[in-house]
Amino acid sequence: ALKAITAFFIGIDDQDVVLSFISVIPKLLSIVVETLKENETHGRTALESMEDLTKNHPEIWKGNTAQLVNVISQVMTTKDFDEGTRAAASEIVAALSE
Fold this sequence. Notes:
Elements: H1 2-10, H2 15-19, H3 25-38, H4 40-56, H5 65-77, H6 83-97
Helix pairs in contact: 1-4, 3-4, 4-6, 5-6
C-alpha cells in the first residue's frame, strides 16, 4: 500500500496538489518504521519508495523534515539492519539534500 501511495504522489505533476496531501506524511513515516520492525526486507522496499517520492517531490517533507531525519538516522545507526537497509535510508537523505 505504501508503494502505491508513493507512486500516486510521484504521478502528480502539480506541486500544490502534492502538498495538499502533506498531512499524511507523518503516518507514512510511521508505516515505514512499523514495517522495518516487522520485516526488514519489506521495510527496505518502503524506504526505497520514500526515496523515489523524495526525489520527485522533496517539498512534501516541509514541516516533517525533523521527523524524517530522526527516523532515517535511527535506521542508519541500527547495526541490526543489514547494510542494504541502512544504505536505502541514507539515499533518502541524499535525495533530500539534492
